[in-house]
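Supplementary notes (optional reading)

For those who missed the lab, this is the record we used. Protein: 4-hydroxy-3-methylbut-2-enyl diphosphate reductase. Length: 319 residues.
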Amino acid sequence: MNIDVIKKELNVYLANPRGFCAGVERAIQIVEKSLIEYGAPVYVRHDIVHNKTVVNELIKKGVVFVEELDEIPRTDQPIIFSAHGVAESVVKDAEHKNLNFIDATCPLVSKVHIEAKKLHKEGFEIILIGHRNHPEVIGTIGQLPENSINLIENINDAKKYTPINPKKIAYITQTTLSVDDTLEIVALLKSKYPNIKSPHKEDICYATTNRQEVVKKLAKYADVMLVVGSSHSSNSLRLVEVGKRSGCEQSYLIENVNQIDWKIIDNIDNLFITAGASAPEVLVQEIINKLSNKFDVKLINDTFTEENISFRLPKIKKI
């Protein structure tokens, strides 16, 4: 005799937009097209994007990830710079070694690099708002001579900062910061230094902003929020922080379905799922499938904004 098991109902709110941004898609396409054109191995300096699933899948296809160019043997195979960007010294080193390199830096990160160089040429004292040791920050600081950029990580750094010439300062930012934290820092800097020059267009990227705004809107409805992303992904970590501030104290970062703590899901009614800009959609779908096995899932999609941005690929042709 078959007895149907009655599953507990679970409302699952899906963030839209979520997951891959245009810069991440472009970087992965550059690697995959390089594999088609050149064959394996293709070398990538640093993780192409901050997601273990993406990196592991590319390793299976023949990508070799390195941290420094010195780790690469003499080769005519391409060396790809990650989406986070690299210092000028890395580019010069690659040129000196006559390496066949392809730059997969996100165009929005490149925009910040261009801003920094322009401000430096115009004689501005430059502030970079960002996280120390993040590869994007290292790459941006490395666009200019040593000690040309002052790093501010938080509001306390901003309070302590004293410029040499308060009338000739400017700020730029990392592209994956907390929007609210950055606004607080910028507001303090502007109150102290009314003449401070702002970026012509906001440096925090559209994808970071959109994903945080969705969380602000929906977190208040959730008993638990799951952010799909890697622990070294800045934009994913920021989503967890925004979730907690926006009313969902039980906001957690998970790499994949295997990291779900089911004890925190079993007795809730409303679950919110989002994904960082470097997390592939397949990870979200695996979570939904697993939830559907355990619960009577009601999916609730609420699109905050449509994202139709794409970036042109560089020429990838065997030399």
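If you only remember one thing from this example: Residues 216 and 245 are 8 Å apart (CA to CA).
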